[in-house]
Amino acid sequence: MIQRALLSVSDKTGLIELARGLAELGIELISTGGTARALKEAGIPVTPIELVTSTPEMLGGRVKTLHPMVHAGLLARRHVAADEADLAKQGIAKIDLIAVNLYPFEESIAQPDITLSDAIEQIDIGGVALLRAGAKNYIDVTVLSDPADYEAVLRQLREGGEVNDTTRAALAVKAFQSTARYDAAISGYLSEMLGEGESALFPNRLTLGATKAEEMRYGENPHQRAALYQVPDVGGLGNAEQLHGKEMSYTNWLDAEGAWGAVQMFHTPAIVIVKHASPCGIATNNSLVQAWQDALASDPVSAFGGVVAVNRPVDLATAQAIDTIFTEIILAPAFEQEALTLLEEKKNRRLLRVPLYTGSPVEVRSIPGGFIAQEQDEPEEEIKMEVVSRRAPSQDEQGTLAFAWRAAIAVKSNAIVLARAVEGGFTTVGIGSGQPNRVDSVGLAVQKAGEKARGAVLASDAFFPFPDGVERAVAAGVSAIIQPGGSIRDDAVIEAADAHEAAMVLTGVRHFRH
Questions:
Q1: Is 511 exposed, middle or buried (0-12, 13-18, 19+ CB in 10 A)?
Q2: Coil, strand, or helix at residue 183?
Q3: How deeply is 78 buried, as exposed, middle or buried, from its count of CB atoms within 10 A (0-12, 13-18, 19+)?
Q4: Which of 12, 136, 244, 346 is catalytic?
Q5: Is 212 noted as a catalytic residue in this protein?
Q6: Residue 316: CB partners within 8 Å, gap ≥ 6?
Q7: How far is Cα of residue 190 from the mean position of the Cα atoms in its chain?
Q8: Phi-psi region for residue 302, left (φ > 0), alpha (ψ -120 to 50) or beta?
Q9: For 54, which DSSP code?
Q10: Cα(334)–Cα(120) distance, rounded to whole angstroms?
C-alpha cells in the first residue's frame, strides 16, 4: 500500500498530473527544491525534504536527499522485522514510491560552449542514489524514472490501490538501465576530457549506453529477432525522426546507414542512392534535381526500390523527381512542406528527418564475445594527388578525381568508382563493390558504365596489386586514375596507365570499407 511518495525531477513533464493524482489518492508527497516549488505553485500539498531530514540543502544544492531519513525509508524491507524495528527506533517513515529523473548531463555536454566545471555540476549524485535504492528494494518500492510511466502507475493505483509486482520489477529494471546509461555518458565524457592520448578515444573499459527505441518485426530474415537502440541527445541516424511510412526493418536501417554515411562525404549538394547497403549512384550538383537525375542514371536498374539520401532540405522539385520511381526510404536533414505533402502520398514510403550528429568520432561493431572500435573514416580535407604517370591529369580531371575519391570511401571494398564531370557537378557512372578481387570490381564498374566509361576517371579505395585492373579500365577508355599506391608492383601498374596515356595520381591513403 503506497502511503508516502518522494518526487524529485529535473524533467518536469507530467509532474503536476502525477502529483495531483497521488494527492487525490491520499498519498503524502515530499519533494526537493524546484520540484517542491512547482507543486506548491500548482496548489498541491507537499512537504519539503528539509523538514523530513531536519537538514537544509547544502553545498549549493549538491546535498539534498543523501540522508538516512530518506534512504532508510526507501531501503527498509517491509517483511524483515529487524528493518521495521530500526525504522521505529529512529523515527523514520517509509517511502513507498519515488519519481526521480536526473540532471540533463547528456544535453549539457552537447552544448558547444560547455566547460568542464559546468559539466561536472550536471553530474547527478542524489538522484542516482535514490533510483538505485528504490530499484534495489523494488519488492516494496515503486520507482518512476521515466515520465512515460506515470499514467500507467496512476491507473493501477486508482483501479486496485497498489502497483502490481510485475510492474514494479519492470520499473526497477528501467531505473537501473537509466543509471547505467547515465554513468556511461559521464565516463565517456570524462575519459575524453581527462584521459591522455589514445586512452581518451579508447578507454580501458568501454561502456555502451543506449535505450531501446523499438522492437522490429524481424531482422535480416523472418526467423531473426531485432530491435533498434538509440543513444539519446547526440543526433545522427539512430535518432532520426520518421515522418511517414511503415516501420523500419533491420535491413532498412542498414541501407539507411550506407546511404546517410555516403552523402555525408560531400560538402556540396549531393544525392546518394543505395541498394542492399551499397551505393549504386552518387552525384553532386548545384541543382538537387540534376543531382538526382545523374545519380539515377548511374544505375537505374539497381536504383528501383532503393534508399535515397540527400544532404540538403528536400524541395518540391526534387521530391517530384524522386517520386518518378519506387523508393523505400528517403533521408534528409529536412523536407519542405510541399515536398513532404507530395512524398507522403505513397503510404509505404518511409521518410526520415536526420538530425546533425554530435556524438563520438568512434564507431563500434559487435563480434561474438565482444566489440571492435575504430575512429570513423573521413575523407581528407585536402586530397593529395602525387602525379606518377607521364601525363598529369587536366584541371577538369582533377576535380572529377577528387569527387570519385570521396565517393569510393563510401563504397564497400574492393571499391572501384567511375565518375564524370557534368554541368554543375559530378556523378558516378559505374560502381564496382564488394568483390573478392579488385579486377572483378573494375570489370563490374566498367560493365555498369558501358560507353560512359570512355573519358571517365576511376577511383580505387586501395592499391592495385597487379596491372590487370588498370589494363581493364584503360581498355574501356578510362582517362585518369586515383589510388593510394603502395603495391610492390606499382611500377608495372603505372606502366599500364602510361601505355594508354592515362593519368595516374597517388594519395598515399587507403579507405577500405568492410
A1: buried
A2: helix
A3: middle
A4: 136
A5: no
A6: 336, 338, 339, 342
A7: 20
A8: alpha
A9: T
A10: 34
The single residue of 12, 244, 276, 346 carrying the catalytic annotation is 276
> Whose CA is closest to 377, among 402, 428, 329, 412?
412
The alpha carbon of 455 is separated from its chain's Cα centroid by a whole number of angstroms, namely 39
What domains sit in the chain, N to C, each tagged with a CATH number? 4-194 (3.40.50.1380), 234-353 (3.40.140.20), 386-506 (3.40.140.20)
Query: Is 514 noted as a catalytic residue in this protein?
Result: no
Helix (H) or strand (E) holding 4: strand 4-8
Q: Report the SS3 class of residue 131.
A: helix
pTM: 0.78
Distances 55 to 31, 121, 388 between C-alpha atoms, Å: 14, 21, 77
Q: What is the pLDDT of residues 135-144, one digit of tens each?
A: 999 889 999 9
What's CA 240's distance to the chain center, in Å? 8
pLDDT tens digit string along 242-291? 999 999 999 999 999 999 999 999 999 999 999 998 999 999 999 999 99
Q: Grid coordinates in use for 242?
A: 520518421
Give the C-alpha separation, 418 to 429, whole Å: 6
Q: Reduce the DSSP state of residue 351 to 3 states and report it.
A: strand
Of the candidates 469, 430, 432, which has an alpha carbon nearest to the alpha carbon of residue 449? Answer: 430
* 181 residue type, one letter: R
Rg of the chain over all Cα atoms, to the nearest angstrom: 29
Cα–Cα distance list, 124 to 10, 98, 139, 317, 472 (Å)? 10, 16, 25, 49, 62
> What's the rounded Cα separation, in Å, for the pair 47 and 204?
45
